[in-house]
Amino acid sequence: MVINLGGAVDAHTHCYPDMSINEEMIRLSRILGIEQLWVSYHPYSMSGFKPPSEEVWRANEFVYELSRRFKEVKGFVHVNPLNQDAVKMTEFFIRERGFIGVKLYRAVRVSRRIVDPIIEVAVENNVPILVHTAHRLYPTSRPNESEPDDIKSLALRFPKAKIIMAHITGGGDWEYAVSRVRDLPNVYVDIGGSVVDYGSVEEAVRVLGDDRVLFATDTLISAAVSRIINADISEESRIKILRLNAMRILGE
Ligand SMILES: [Zn+2]
Fold first, then answer.
1. How far does CA 48 lie from the centroid of its chain?
2. Contact (CB, 8 A) for 166 and 131
């Protein structure tokens, strides 16, 4: 079976310090017909969840270099909102480096007001904010990991922000996740992650409609590709999820 995703956009993926992995990922993406990869630095390749400023600058510059080398790569600036220069860094990578989005990980929940100046920069520059999010099904201690309700708080504070709730299939309760953002038109979800339960894409489309669901791999390409090509949805919806919704977010 030949798979061609028809110019898809991978709205959430990462690069690694080992360049051979990045080259392999891009080679595979080309074979699959993925035209754009929205890339932020792999968070687990950093020293912790609250990386110091110098480390984050270096990581973002690494993404920039990758974007210069591979036309598919579009940068998302990784930001630790706890760093003094977080706003400056966000502005620099969007305005001077051509990055097309902001990535927030697990330094702080997005319901906290400390993230607001960063979101303001994203809104001013009309770029999306991708937020690592999960509603875990097992007991866990991840105090700074955003839950769907933190996304809701952010979306209500910033109705003009384009917020992507990351990887509904990244290890949390996807049914709960999509239900919590149903009434927030500025919240999108991506279908990346490793969980291969049946029905996640169908449920996202049923609850949110097919305009707010984005194809993404979060580097787990085979899971994401099988999830989208096997989803029991219309071809029109599939094309929206694979490409058109992402292009609309970029204003193209
Ligand atoms: Zn990720």
1. 19
2. yes
CA distance 102 to 130: 6
Q: How far is the CA of 129 from the centre of ligand 1 (A)?
A: 13
DSSP code string of 99-137: --EEEE-SSS-TTSGGGHHHHHHHHHTT--EEE-B--BS
Q: How far is the CA of 42 from the centre of ligand 1 (A)?
A: 7
Predicted model pTM: 0.96
- Which residues, at least 6 apart from 72, have a Cβ–Cβ distance to it below 8 Å? 26, 29, 30, 34, 35, 36, 37
Of 29, 27, 88, 80, residue with least CA distance to 50: 80
User: Within 10 Å of residue 55's Cβ, how many Cβ atoms?
Assistant: 16
Q: What would the pLDDT profile of 81-107 be if each residue is shown by its tens digit?
A: 999 999 999 999 999 999 999 999 999
**Ligand 1 centroid to 184 CA: how many Å?**
22
- Distance of alpha carbon 25 from alpha carbon 140, whole angstroms: 31
Q: What is the mean pLDDT of the chain?
A: 95
Domain 8-249 has CATH 3.20.20.140: yes
Q: Measured in angstroms, how far is the CA atom of residue 12 from the centroid of ligand 1?
A: 6
Please state, for a pLDDT cut of 70, what percent of the chain lies above it: 99
Residue 140 has pLDDT above 80, yes or no: no
How far does residue 84's CA lie from ligand 1's centre (Å)?
A: 24
Residue 141 has pLDDT above 90, yes or no: no
Give 240's DSSP letter: I
SS3 content of the chain, % helix, strand, coil (to 5): 40, 15, 40
State the distance from the centre of ligand 1 to the C-alpha of 15, rounded, in angstroms: 10
